[in-house]
Design goal:
The protein is mainly β and 213 residues long. It is built from 4 helices and 9 strands. The chain has helices at 90-94, 117-123, 152-155, 202-205, and strands spanning 54-56, 61-64, 75-85, 104-114, 132-135, 142-143, 167-177, 182-187, 208-211. It is globular.
Length: 213
């Protein structure tokens, strides 16, 4: 079974440096959304969250973290804090080709990842999982990138920068076409590179979702 995605134009990244964890954005850039978030204390890992679970913003999900050959398994905590419709002109600052995105309304999805400090140290940084925007009709939305970033000027919202601890804020820039609205986020264990779905992967058939309660 092949994966059908909403295709979006190639984004030529501008001031917000939305792809990757680089600090190429201006250090003096003002966040597009002035909203302060506090870390949620996730504590010790709980049971792995079942496929199909419907969570509210602020609720923790636990997943098996991505590992490379020879690495020990570990658990990764994930929280979706909020979804905010980006202000007018956001994409004009975010990408160099905003004319290709005029049919979309951008949304900033604020997330948090948690891993034990020994896991962070062993892997040379925080691991993360790819999330997808969740449309109001329950289907995945389009996005610019799923790469986690933790600098205020890159996320477009005033979240704390990651300084090497067990928790890291990240953001996902979702895109909704006219008549659509992004209301949350979902984890279906796919990435932008996924072409063929795995029939044995339960999350791909029944994603974990977060939305407002």
């Amino acid at each position: 079974m092949r994966l059908h995605r909403t295709l979006v134009p190639l984004a030529v990244i501008g001031a917000l440096a939305l792809t990757g964890c680089s600090s190429s954005g201006s250090a003096d850039a003002e966040p597009a959304v002035d909203y302060d978030y506090d870390f949620i204390a996730m504590g010790e890992p709980g049971e792995i969250t079942a496929a199909g679970s419907a969570l509210s913003f602020g609720e923790v999900a636990w997943f098996e973290g991505p590992i490379n050959e020879g690495e020990d398994p570990y658990e990764l905590g994930v929280v979706v804090h909020d979804v905010i419709e980006a202000p007018e002109g956001f994409l004009e600052d975010a990408v160099s080709n905003p004319e290709d995105f005029t049919q979309y309304t951008p949304y900033i999805i604020i997330t948090q990842f948690h891993a034990a400090q020994d896991v962070v140290d062993a892997h040379g940084g925080m691991r993360n999982l790819s999330l997808q925007p969740l449309l109001a009709d329950g289907t995945p939305g389009a996005y610019l990138t799923t790469m986690a970033v933790s600098k205020t000027d890159e996320c477009g919202a005033s979240v704390p920068e990651w300084e090497g601890g067990e928790d890291m804020f990240s953001c996902l820039i979702g895109l909704a076409e006219e008549g659509q609205q992004i209301t949350g986020a979902l984890f279906d264990d796919t990435t932008q590179a996924t072409v063929v779905l795995d029939p044995e992967n339960p999350y791909q058939a029944s994603p974990v979702t977060w939305s407002a309660s």
